[in-house]
């Protein structure tokens, strides 16, 4: 049993979360509501009231205003890799951990990039389009093998390193650049600057998060540094590349092609129209943000994020959260577990331990983890005293959120 019946725990899932994730919540007894598309912030502010767990992908935005209206929200799950659609600082302030799926679609994105590298080197999509139009363009001009060419990977994380392994198996020489020192896989070689990577690569693939220092990181200056006749691929975040500068470089044939899966502005749904300056340019592959959109990836993401949220709800584990102190304490038998989120100021643990001591309760286990803003305390107590202790902890001025698990 938990502090209130599981059938009263409301889960709101947006943007067609895979059925695998839905079933995880339903099988544990939670009440699940699914919405097929994204919700604008104003509508989400209304729908979030009374919701305990929120799941979304990349289109919905969880702003500070949304979090202020979330009167019962305990956790957020991003069923994707990125979490920039959530105001993480505000979620931290309101005591709401945010979980994502950093591994589940890695293979799908890496495979798509490999396919696009081959496609661009041979002009396959461009020639296919012409064949559909009745034009027979049989020629070896501008068509190359990828073996022996150099792939430069910007961002050597889960996807970048997986791409590195696949690329090497096809005979590509792999360079990578990352702001954090990373151990290379296989024969990949790290370089000391983005400029070096751009100058030496025949193909440049971007795999970086959305952040102030990555927005606009590939503009006319960087593109001019790339080899004449090279190719640019972006399946990371839309604001990383300045699209107008890329269009100019393609029109002037400085770059021979590009594959772009993400854009600065993207339609909210499949019913909305899509426009970009890259449309109609030769040897440019445009895809609608589908890097991780395979059945295998979506199923894995559904399972990974829903299980993380379930562990948080049922045992208080924040392992895998991107904005919260990490706590994963084994469950103690015959005890009640108190979960407390509080402002990280001096004296909080002293106040809580005084409450426990005055109640005569016995602490069976206790773990506190902090970040600069908040502290997250998991404490197992004797059943007899737990409700009184929880009530007093809730009344502390430093408490943000507290709940009890049975």
Features:
7-stranded parallel sheet, 3 domains, Rossmann fold, Alpha-Beta Plaits, single chain, 5-stranded parallel sheet
Strand content: 15-25%
Q: Which percent bin holds the helix content?
A: 25-40%
Gross morphology is elongated
Gross CATH architecture of the largest domain = 3-Layer(aba) Sandwich
What is the CATH topology assignment of the largest domain?
Answer: Rossmann fold
CATH homologous superfamily designation of the largest domain: NAD(P)-binding Rossmann-like Domain
Question: How many E strands?
Answer: 16
Overall tally of domains: 3
Question: Secondary-structure element sequence?
Answer: EHEHEHEHEHHEHEEHEHEHEEHEHEEHE
Number of H- or I-type helical stretches: 13
Q: Enumerate the spans where pLDDT stays under 50 for 5 or more consecutive residues.
A: none
**What's the multimeric state?**
single chain
Mean pLDDT: 95
Spatial gap, N to C terminus: 6 Å
Biggest sheet overview:
7 strands, parallel
CATH class membership of the largest domain: Alpha Beta
Q: Structural class of the helices, strands and pairings?
A: alpha/beta
**Main sheet: strand order:** 8-7-6-9-10-11-12
Cα-atom radius of gyration: 25 Å
């Amino acid at each position: 049993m938990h502090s209130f019946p599981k059938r009263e725990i409301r889960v709101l899932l947006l943007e067609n979360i895979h059925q695998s994730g839905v079933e995880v919540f339903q099988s544990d007894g939670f009440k699940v509501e699914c919405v097929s598309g994204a919700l604008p912030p104003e509508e989400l502010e209304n729908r979030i009231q009374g919701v305990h767990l929120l799941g979304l992908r990349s289109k919905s935005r969880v702003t500070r205003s949304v979090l202020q209206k979330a009167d019962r929200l305990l956790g957020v799950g991003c069923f994707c890799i990125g979490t920039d659609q959530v105001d993480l600082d505000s979620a931290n302030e309101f005591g709401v951990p945010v979980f994502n799926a950093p591994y589940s679609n890695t293979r799908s994105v890496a495979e798509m990039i490999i396919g696009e590298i081959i496609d661009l080197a041979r002009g396959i999509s461009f020639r296919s389009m012409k064949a559909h139009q009745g034009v027979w363009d049989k020629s070896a001009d501008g068509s190359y093998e990828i073996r022996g060419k150099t792939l430069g990977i910007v961002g050597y994380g889960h996807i970048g390193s997986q791409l590195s392994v696949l690329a090497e198996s096809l005979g590509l020489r792999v360079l990578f650049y990352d702001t954090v020192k990373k151990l290379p896989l296989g024969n990949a070689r790290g370089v000391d600057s983005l400029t070096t990577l751009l100058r030496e690569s025949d193909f440049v693939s971007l795999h970086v998060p959305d952040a102030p220092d990555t927005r606009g990181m590939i503009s006319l200056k960087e593109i001019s540094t790339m080899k004449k006749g090279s190719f640019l691929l972006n399946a990371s975040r839309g604001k990383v590349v300045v699209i107008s500068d890329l269009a100019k470089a393609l029109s002037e044939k400085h770059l021979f092609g590009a594959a772009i899966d993400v854009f600065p502005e993207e339609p909210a749904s499949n019913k909305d129209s899509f426009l970009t300056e890259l449309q109609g340019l030769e040897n440019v592959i445009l895809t609608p943000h589908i890097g991780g959109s395979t059945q295998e990836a979506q199923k894995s993401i559904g399972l990974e994020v829903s299980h993380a949220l379930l562990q948080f709800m049922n045992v208080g584990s924040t392992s895998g959260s991107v904005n919260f102190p990490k706590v994963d304490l084994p469950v103690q038998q015959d005890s009640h577990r108190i979960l407390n989120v509080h402002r990280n100021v001096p004296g909080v643990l002293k106040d809580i331990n005084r409450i426990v001591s005055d109640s005569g309760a016995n602490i069976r286990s206790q773990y506190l983890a902090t970040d600069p803003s908040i502290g997250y305390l998991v404490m197992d107590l004797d059943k007899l005293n737990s409700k009184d202790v929880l009530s007093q902890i809730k009344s502390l001025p430093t408490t943000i959120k507290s709940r009890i698990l049975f």
